[in-house]
Amino acid sequence: MSVKIEQIDACRWRIPREGDMRTEGLVFADRAMIEVLRKEQALEQVRNVATLPGIVGPSIAMPDIHWGYGFPIGGVAAFDPDQGGVVSPGGVGYDINCGVRLLRSELEASDVRPRLKELADALFHNVPSGVGSHRRDLKLSVQEERKVLRDGARWAVRNGFGRAEDLEHIEEGGALPDADPEVVSDRALERGRDQLGTLGSGNHFLEVQVVEEIEDAQAAAVLGLFAGQVTVSIHTGSRGLGYQVCDDFIRVMLRAAAKYGIALPDRQLCCAPLTSPEGRQYLAAMAGAANFAFANRQLITHWVRETFEQVLGQGPARLRIGLIYDVCHNIAKWEQHEVGGRKRRLCVHRKGATRAFPPRHPETPALYRDIGQPVLIPGDMGRYSYVLVGTPAAFGETFGSTCHGAGRVLSRQAAKKQARGQNTEAELAARGILVRAANRATVAEEIPEAYKDVREVVGIVARAGIGRIVARLRPLAVIKG
Amino acid sequence: MGHYRLLAHTADMGLEAWGESRAELFVQAALALREVIIGQATVRETRHLAFTLSGGDDAELLVNWLAELLFHFECRHFVPAGFILEFSDTQLHARVRGEDFDPERHPVEREVKAVTHHQVLVEKTPEGWHGRLYLDL
User: Fold this and answer.
1) CA distance linking residue A262 with residue A257, whole number of Å
2) Domain of residue B22, CATH code
3) 8-state DSSP, B99
4) Facing residues of A345 across strands?
5) Beta-carbon separation of A67 and B10 below 8 A
6) Which of A16, A237, A438, B5 is the most buried (most CB within 10 A)?
7) Phi, psi of A33 (to 5 degrees)
8) B114, A270: Cβ pair inside 8 Å?
9) Strand partners, B82
10) Which of A267, A446, A452 to mutate to test binding with chain B, by most B CBs within 10 Å of its CB?
11) Which residues, at least 6 apart from A120, have a Cβ–Cβ distance to it below 8 Å?
């Protein structure tokens, strides 16, 4: 089925309201991206989201949009509880609070290059990646796991993983309020127990990087970034615990949608009113899974610090590995937004989209008050990643949201086919990028060519004004699952 | 004869399966899921598990069936090989033979996060049973 789409300007497109749509669609993309999108189902998914009850403002898609399940990846949608607004587990995704954190250091690339191989090997050894891998020195009881769900990164800091000041630079302070471990199933707890402090597989990664270019010197100075500096990015989420919470609640929501008379163009869009018991329970379970993810990234941060200290033989005071920021890109959150001249409390779904709050917003950390909330946009393992900051325009137009990554262009099968006959690891090594992966299939499916050039995605976001580019980072060593 | 194929998807992967009976379709879908995770590895039959599942319709039951196998793989380290399936109303009674996961003999190719309900399909056609679903990787 083809979707009608009209160009608004160089980077905005409108899907006009028609049929059972309650609002229009707004897609951030250039013409070339739209031509590619027409061939898959992502635009249809933007339209499907627009049919859900209580949606406020347009059904939005970021330039890294691609075909997801129910909601597109790269989708943003806000719902008003006073207008029958809904919450949908499919609008958050299976990997609840999948997100990115960025660490800074006092090191320059020349400080680590001579020891890079050792550093990559040690990170690969110390941070569990791939299926079934976990630290032998971390055993969680069920009671302790419930505390992780309630307290998130605070649990980690309290137990010696990281520092109290880290918490100030995590979205929501590293713990969403209103998490209720009691509504998380035994299965979800079981799936998560051995996976706290693990990277996982697929597109998740740990990267040692160098700051390649500074585009906004003032913002970079506030973030503590300088050209040639070593940074570390961590991309992972709530692991099996989050996947199971989503799975459990999709079953609940399939019944709930029928119970509340919500018509679904796709089962995966199943949802319930925000004010219903099902809606409230999902949000409480989702918050628990989100907190598990915050704790997960916090534990990995601790092991990254330890590994740098061991390999480089320098103490924390000299290395000064600090947390710049930690963002969620799969989440639903209660936020205050002004719509139609009136402040409203809305539930904003971001599925493959990042919060990008402006300067002086109360949720923007004090240190970043004048520049806006940092936004972390990973690219592929062969090219680069970006650091942006949120803008007032994003707050006004996209509920304070921007893109989350490059977005795939090749299916896994197509990537694997293209990788056949090429030695991806050797080619990357020749370009100064070391790769350590739990299995070769992951590397083949994650080749740089499988992704859009993140520079194009970020370029559209910057031109549209819903993000401001601060710096570009290039990988030195990549750890994959 | 039952068979299956894996479907391309921009970010993830789908599977399509066929069988002369509903049970055969479900078995083929399970074998497709196993291939996505551990490729063509040989799996022995040294232990078994048995369970009963329900679903609002055949499509939901297919999702629940693969989700159950995924859970047993990930948490109980069980790799399936042989299946005896029976249906009654909206329920599936399964007896599955297989063995303990051994990373040496069953090298993991991909982590499957979940079995989705996106465009899930189970249909009876004049030629037999046909089903399709997508996995989140």
Assistant:
1) 5
2) 3.55.10.10
3) E
4) A336
5) yes
6) A237
7) -65, -40
8) no
9) B97
10) A267
11) A208, A434, A436, A477, A479
B126 touches chain A (CB under 8 A): no
Kindly list the residues from chain B whose CB atom is less than 8 angstroms away from the CB atom of residue A268.
Answer: 116-118
Domain region containing B46:
3-136
Just list the catalytic residues of A. 404
Token pair, residue A315, equals 């103490």
Q: Which two tokens stand for residue B47?
A: 């232990």
Q: Please answer whether residues A128 and A198 qualify as being in contact, where contact means their C-beta atoms are separated by less than 8 angstroms.
A: yes
Contact A254 B120 (CB under 8 A): no
Query: Could you give the C-alpha distances from B1 to A68, A141, A337, B17, B42, in angstroms and in order?
Result: 32, 47, 57, 11, 21
Domain count, chain B: 1
Please say whether the beta carbons of A324 and A374 come within 8 A.
Answer: yes
End-to-end CA distance of chain A: 37
Is pTM beyond 0.90 here? Answer: yes
Q: Residue A3 corresponds to which tokens in the numbers above?
A: 């979707």
CA A66/CA A63 separation, integer angstroms: 9
Classify strands A55-66 and A73-79 as parallel, antiparallel or unpaired: antiparallel
For chain B, give percent helix, strand, coil, nearest 5.
25, 40, 30
Per-residue pLDDT of chain A (481 residues; tens, 9 = 90+): 589 999 999 999 999 999 999 999 999 999 999 998 888 889 999 999 999 999 999 999 999 999 888 999 999 999 999 999 999 999 999 999 999 999 999 999 999 999 999 999 999 999 999 888 899 999 999 999 999 999 999 999 999 999 999 999 999 999 999 999 999 999 999 999 999 999 999 899 999 999 999 999 999 999 999 999 999 999 999 999 999 999 999 999 999 999 999 999 999 999 999 999 999 999 999 999 999 999 999 999 999 999 999 999 999 999 999 999 999 999 999 999 999 899 999 999 999 999 999 999 999 999 999 999 999 999 999 999 999 999 999 999 999 999 999 988 888 889 989 998 889 999 999 999 999 998 888 899 999 999 999 999 999 999 999 999 999 999 999 999 8
| Dist CA A241 CA A248 (whole Å) | 11
